[in-house]
Design goal:
The protein is α+β, with helices and mostly antiparallel strands and 150 residues long. 40% of the residues lie in helices and 16% in strands. A four-stranded antiparallel beta sheet has the order 1-2-3-4, covered by helices on one side.
Length: 150
C-alpha cells in the first residue's frame, strides 16, 4: 500500500484549492487597481481632446475674423449639421468620443468653454479668459454640464 502511494504523481485536492485561493486573492487585489488606471486613461484622453477642441476653436475664431464673419459662439450638441467649427478637422477626431461643446469668445479670448462626452465634462466661464492649461475634467456630469445649441 505505501509503495503504491509514493509512485502516484499529481497534486492533492488541498494543494489545488490552496493555489486557487491564492489566485483569487491576487485577482481581488489587482482588479480595482487596473480599473482605476483604465478610468484615469479615459479621463486623460478626454482632457487631451478638450484641449484640442479649445485650440481648434481659437484657430476657427481667427479664421472667421479674417474672413467676412464675426462669429463669437461655437456650438456642437451632437447634431452634425450644427457643428460650427469647420477648420482644424474636428470631425476627424475620435468619432466615438461623443464630444459636445459650447464656446464663447469676447474680443479675442475664450470666456466660456463647456465640453463633455457624456461621462467627463469641463465647464468654465471666466470674463478674463479661460486658459487651455486650466482644462481638467470632472465626473460625474452635473446638470450645468448639459449642452444645447441655440
Amino acid at each position: 500500500g505505501l509503495i503504491n502511494m509514493k509512485n502516484k504523481k499529481g497534486f492533492t485536492l488541498i494543494e489545488l484549492l490552496a493555489v486557487i485561493a491564492i489566485l483569487a486573492i491576487l485577482v481581488v487585489i489587482a482588479v480595482p487597481s487596473v480599473l482605476k488606471l483604465f478610468n484615469k486613461g479615459k479621463t486623460s484622453a478626454f482632457d487631451t481632446q478638450a484641449k484640442n477642441v479649445f485650440k481648434i476653436a481659437q484657430t476657427q475664431f481667427v479664421s472667421d475674423q479674417l474672413g467676412t464673419g464675426s462669429k463669437s459662439t461655437y456650438c456642437f450638441d451632437g447634431d452634425a449639421s450644427n457643428d460650427s467649427i469647420t477648420t482644424g478637422k474636428l470631425g476627424d477626431m475620435d468619432a466615438g468620443a461623443n464630444l459636445k461643446y459650447y464656446i464663447t469668445f469676447d474680443d479675442d479670448i475664450i470666456t466660456k468653454f463647456m465640453i463633455n462626452d457624456g461621462k467627463n465634462a469641463f465647464n468654465k466661464t471666466l470674463s478674463t479668459g479661460v486658459k487651455v492649461e486650466e482644462i481638467k475634467s470632472h465626473t460625474p456630469l452635473e446638470t450645468t454640464d448639459a449642452i444645447t445649441c441655440p
